[in-house]
Amino acid sequence: MSRTPNLRLCRAAYTNPIHASALVGLLDAYAQDPTGGGEPLSAFTKANLPAALQARPTIFSVLAFDDAQAGLPVGLVNCVEGFSTFACQPLVNIHDVVVAASHRGLRIAEQMLALVEQLARERGACKLTLEVLSGNAPAAKLYRRIGFDNYQLEPSMGHAQFMQKWL
Q: Is the pTM of this model over 0.85?
C-alpha cells in the first residue's frame, strides 16, 4: 500500500467554509455507509454541526485533502477529549474515522491518526480510545497495526464492551 503523495492534513477550523463543507460531506457519506448506520445525516445536523463543534473546546477534527485532485476532501477524524480518572489526565476519544471510498487503501487513516496522536500529546493526553464495529475488519486491522488493543484492566475480567443508551 502506498501513501498519497499530495495529501494535505490539517486540524479543522470549523468556521472555515471549506473545512465545514468537507467535514459535513465526509461525515454524511460515512453515515450512509453500512459501517456508519446506512442513513444520511439529518438536515438539522448538516446545517448545525460545524457551529456545534466550534462551541465545544474539547472537540477537534483532522481533515485530509488530496491536492492532486484540486483539494478534494478525502478523510476526516473527529475527536472528543475526555478524562481518565485513574491517570488523572485527559484522554482523547477518536469518535469518527472516515476515508472517502475513492481513497481507501492508501493509508490516509493511518496518517490522520498520527496527527491525532500528536495533537493528543500536545493536550497532555495519556491515551487514545476508539470503538470499532466487530464486522469492520479492515479498520480493526489498521488500529491493531498502529498500536491499539482491546481495553482491559484485569485480564481475567475480559475486555470492555462498548454500550449505548439513547436519551
A: yes
